[in-house]
Amino acid sequence: MSLRRAKITAVGTFVPQRIVTNDELSLMLDTSDEWISARTGIRERHIAGKEAASDLGAVAARRALEAAGVGAGKVDLIIVASLSPDALFPSTASYISAAIGAGGAPVFDLSAACTGFIYALSVGAAYIASEQAERVLIIGADVASKMVDWTDRRTAVLFGDGAGAVLLEPAGEGEEGIIGFSLGNDPAGVDQLSIPAGGSRLPATEATVAEHMHFIQMNGREVYKFASRIIVSSARQVLQEHGRRVEDVDLFVPHQANIRIIDSAARRLGFPPEKVFSNLERYGNTSCASIPLCLDEAATVGRLKRGDLVLMVGFGGGLSWGSCLARW
Ligand code: COA
Question: Closest residue (by CA) to atom 31 of ligand 1?
Answer without folding.
Answer: 39
